[in-house]
Design goal:
By secondary structure, this protein is α+β, with helices and mostly antiparallel strands. It is built from 10 helices and 4 strands; from the N terminus they run H-H-H-E-E-H-H-H-H-E-E-H-H-H. The protein has a 4-stranded antiparallel beta sheet with strand order 1-2-3-4, with no helix packed on it. Helix 4 packs antiparallel against helix 5 and helix 7 packs antiparallel against helix 8.
Length: 416
């Protein structure tokens, strides 16, 4: 009885999960990936590490305590009527010093650390942009696999129905045994193709689940993901140059380089240590102060200062390179988008309906003996090829749109 209750509970839980399961749209896939993608989870630690570096930069240097003790070792030198442990036979020196950061060194460390936090955030957004594009492309792969499976099922259904009809027609000696066997052979071929397409869809869903970071049972194949229109090329270029994460990261790196130059120049100033000392000598107490600092005869942080200027030049060159690359990528993506859009319209404007009309007419004629099985199979093959070419064109069209979102930086906004 207990096992029965467990089985009922498991079935109820499974049915409840199945009832609550929803087909994932592209935007929903991106939203889930934003919090669950394993690569983004890993990259998030870089931001936390940058925040920890900011804490370190704000810390003040610790004070230093120093002690020296000198003890007489030979009894002949002891004071009269004293032992080894008597204070008159010992001298000590106690110092307490504190480093003081001059030339705004601490403030400049804090400023540099804050800019590095900003840089880490921008780098995270750039990783997000890449992950979102990968998720979107994989979602599109699942969509295409769905459509390929659907048209293969339609083709298989047509052949199965024809095979059933031909079985009766063979019995009535309307067709030859060869025609019937060819129909059955084609039905088996479509059955194998359907199984392969089902496995391909399952594989794509598994890959999408990994990228999303959560189990994806299926997607919403009716989702058009805002394919209603796009901005012009000039507007997209303005958006990209302002909003792309890699460009913002390059700008942030320039700020980090400037802050680093300021810090390295300030570190050329020696860090003095001021303190007090207490010096009991043979029971006679002395007190005073102490100061210690490097004499900048040789090292004045020349190497790090020069390196900081070189890193700034490198960051500026990197910014110009990324900016130029962004413009090229966007112009290429926009041109591809326009081309694929036109190619898709050619199918929707007549090719699909034409292939369906031809197939219906040839099938009608074949069933009434007006044409041969070869003509029907050719029409079926032509219809299937047209359908597959359409969905291939549609995939390229939607992929070009995703690429346009990626190159313009708008894909981050699509995730919400």
């Amino acid at each position: 009885m207990q096992r029965l209750f467990w089985m009922i509970g498991i079935l109820c839980f499974y049915n409840l999960g199945a009832a609550n399961a929803q087909n994932l749209s592209l935007k929903e896939a991106l939203r889930v990936a934003k919090t669950q993608n394993p690569n983004l989870k890993t990259e998030a630690y870089q931001m936390k590490a940058a925040q920890a570096d900011s804490t370190t930069a704000a810390l003040r240097p610790n004070p230093s305590f120093h002690n020296e003790t000198i003890q007489l070792t030979q009894s002949k030198n002891f004071a009269p009527h004293t032992s080894w442990s008597d204070p008159v036979n010992r001298q000590s020196l106690f110092t307490l010093t504190k480093p003081f950061q001059l030339a705004g060194q601490r403030q400049k460390k804090i400023a540099l650390a804050n800019d590095q936090i900003d840089l880490s955030n921008k780098n995270y957004q750039e990783v997000e942009r890449g992950v979102f594009a990968e998720v979107a492309f994989k979602w599109m792969d699942v969509y295409t696999a769905h459509k390929q499976l659907d048209i293969l099922k339609i083709a298989k259904s047509n052949i199965d129905s024809l095979s059933d009809i031909n079985k009766v027609r063979l019995k009535n000696q309307v067709i030859t045994q060869t025609d019937f066997m060819r129909t059955q052979l084609l039905a088996k071929e479509y059955e194998l193709k359907v199984k392969s397409a089902e496995q391909d869809l399952s594989n794509r869903l598994m890959e999408l689940s990994y990228l999303v970071g959560s189990q994806v049972n299926d997607i919403d194949v009716s989702d058009q993901f805002a394919l209603t229109g796009t901005m012009g090329l000039d507007s997209l270029l303005k958006v990209a140059l302002v909003g792309r994460a890699d460009i913002k990261a390059a700008q942030s790196l320039i700020n980090v380089s400037n802050k680093n130059i300021s810090l390295q120049r300030s570190l050329a100033v020696p860090i003095p240590e001021f303190g007090i000392m207490w010096n009991p000598q043979n029971t006679i107490n002395y007190a005073g102060f102490t100061v210690t600092f490097d004499l900048p005869f040789f090292s004045r942080n020349q190497g790090e200062i020069k390196k900081a200027y070189l890193l700034k030049d490198q960051s500026e060159q990197q910014y110009m390179a990324i900016k130029g690359r962004a413009q090229t990528e966007l112009m290429t993506a926009y041109a591809s988008y326009q081309t694929q859009k036109q190619n898709t319209h050619k199918f929707t404007d007549g090719l699909l309906k034409q292939s369906e009309h031809i197939l219906a007419n040839v099938k009608y004629a074949y069933l009434r003996g007006g044409t041969t099985l070869i003509d029907f199979l050719e029409a079926q093959r032509s219809w299937l090829e047209t359908q597959q070419q359409y969905y291939d064109a549609l995939q390229l069209y939607r992929q070009s749109y995703i690429q346009l979102l990626y190159t313009s930086g708008l894909i981050n906004q699509l995730a919400g």
